[in-house]
Specification:
The chain has about 260 residues and is an alpha/beta fold. It has helices at about 10-20, 45-55, 100-105, 135-145, 175-180, 190-200, 220-235, 240-255; strands at about 1-5, 25-30, 40, 60-65, 80-85, 120-125, 150-155, 170, 180-185, 205, 235. Helix 1 crosses helix 8.
């Protein structure tokens, strides 16, 4: 099997090594398609390239920052998780996965969190976040402020959008403190949505979010959330797990594509 790898961050480099160790061939892709059986792209910033591969019938997987215990910066590149997602960002495995990888994260799923009589917590995202898909995020936030009563807004901790206090109450504490007082979390496509569901707080999000299947004002049952997070865990890998990632990709995921 021939793998084309476009972009070479640290995870892409380890993926290439793992592909070779697994007995497959690696070719380096640039800004155009190359003959291959599967394409691995380090970002979604070249949608034309993604569409060209898909039009040619070549499965495309994106490798980017992960979901739970993710890599958030250079200091975490070796220890944090990177996602492998089908077709676009956040394309989780769409089939049932075992519980072992999520169990190894040692991340509990809360039965019921937040405050049933609390506020609606609206989460902002970082300007330029590729998950926003070129939307007008400021307008999207303002629409949410108007849609719900008793709104508290929490900007992204890294250079978030700010609003005047006369427009919305802003939360200044930690994310977990914000969840503790919330009856509902509303976000577009934020990684914090995963954290809210783990904390036992219901989430309403845009359909493009990876957890959109759990979106709603009522918290999904534990069984449903657990099955979802089992799939999440098989959609993210550390650099020291790339050989296992390639094995899962070739033996479990690709045959279902």
């Amino acid at each position: 099997m021939i793998f084309a790898i476009h972009g070479r961050n640290i995870f892409g480099l380890h993926l290439g090594l793992a592909v070779k160790q697994s007995g497959h061939k690696v070719v380096t892709g640039m800004d155009a398609t190359v003959p291959c059986d599967i394409a691995l792209l380090g970002s979604i910033r070249e949608p034309e390239l993604i569409e060209a591969y898909k039009a040619a019938g070549v499965p495309v997987f994106i490798y980017e920052q992960g979901y739970v215990k993710r890599t958030n910066g250079p200091s975490e590149h070796q220890i944090g998780h990177w996602q492998l997602s089908k077709d676009w960002l956040n394309g989780l495995p769409d089939f049932e996965c075992k519980a072992d990888r999520f169990d190894s994260l040692d991340t509990p799923i809360g039965q019921k969190g937040g405050d049933a009589k609390g506020y609606v917590l609206v989460l902002g995202q970082k300007p330029g976040d590729s998950a926003l898909n070129g939307t007008d995020h400021v307008q999207w936030l303002r629409d949410r402020f108007d849609e719900y009563d008793n709104v508290v807004y929490r900007p992204h901790p890294k250079r978030g959008y700010e609003f005047d206090a006369s427009e919305v109450t802003q939360q200044e504490g930690t994310l977990q403190e914000a969840f503790a007082g919330a009856k509902l979390v509303v976000c577009y496509n934020s990684t914090a949505g995963f954290a809210a569901l783990l904390a036992g707080v219901p989430v309403v999000c845009d359909p493009c979010a990876p957890y959109a299947e759990l979106s709603g004002t009522r918290l999904p049952a534990m069984k449903k959330r657990r099955a979802f997070f089992n799939r999440v865990a098989y959609g993210q890998w550390r650099v020291d797990q790339t050989k296992a990632a390639v094995e899962f990709l070739t033996k479990e995921w690709l045959p279902r594509c």
